[in-house]
Amino acid sequence: MTKLLILGGTTEARLLCEAVAKLNIDATVSLAGVTTTPEAMALPLRTGGFGGPSGLTRWMEEHDTQALIDATHPFAAQMPWHAFAASEEISVPRLRMLRPPFQTHDDVKRVANLKDALAKIPPDRRILLTTGRRDLDVLAERPDLTVLLRTIEPMDDLPTNATALLMRPPFAVAEEIELLTHHRIDSVIAKDSGGATASKLTAAHKLGREVVLIDRPEQPPGPLVQRVGEAVAWLTHVVGF
Ligand code: NAP
Fold first, then answer.
1. Which residues of the chain have pLDDT under 70?
2. Residue 150 half-sphere exposure toward CB, CA atoms < 13 A
3. What is d(CA 160, CA 147) in angstroms, rounded to the nearest whole number?
4. According to DSSP H, which parts of 166-227 are helical?
5. What gap in Å lies between CA 70 and CA 79, rounded to an integer?
6. 75 C-alpha to ligand 1 centroid (Å)
7. Which residue CA neighbors atom 42 of ligand 1 most closely?
């Protein structure tokens, strides 16, 4: 039996697990299994996809799940919708925990995806790209750009105009200023992930460098909180754990 299922993959999910463990709620945290070295969790862990919304429904039924907290990443585009569909199907209370977006300056350009971001960049620029390893084929359409691609884990198929920079956040503003200066970066393209990586935006602003931010995907309807404390309050006051 698992009274509570937490869909993880974020720092906030890991912190929520710590809070839930202290409450002695019978809970399981789930990770997609995309990270080779995930951080230790304070709750029992299951790993890997459920097999779509029906697989998630089945898992929750089999484990007699009474509440679901979706604490996946702001750019996890599918899992929040699977969580929504599965919880509606079997009437399990669901909460989306989503960290606040970045607080940005007025000069930040906002776009829907990487292709649109590249369209905003003037010719022959040097770019710091922090949007992850997906959808990078569009870089081939801009061979004039020199791209420094910052990732946590190594990549096999780097686009020809990109160089990988393996670094693990968080980064101090001073480190980001040093990086942007050292690599003569003109523009930063990032996702509006929120969280601990805002320092690159502060650094770019201080140096007067262009910032293009990719907006978050749409979230399913329903209750949404931004912080661990609010999720714990939902568990005690709304679900009644
Ligand atoms: P996604 O598009 O929403 O999910 C893709 C598939 O991965 C889902 O359909 C599901 O497979 C499986 N999945 C996702 N989260 C899961 C979880 N917590 N437990 C079990 N299965 C899960 O998400 P994504 O962008 O591929 O990201 C995968 C994971 O990495 C997420 O948990 C997310 O929190 C984390 N993450 C994502 C980003 C990002 O920028 N996208 C950044 C940092 C961390 P089934 O349909 O088979 O159930």
1. 1
2. 20
3. 9
4. 173-182, 199-207
5. 8
6. 9
7. 73
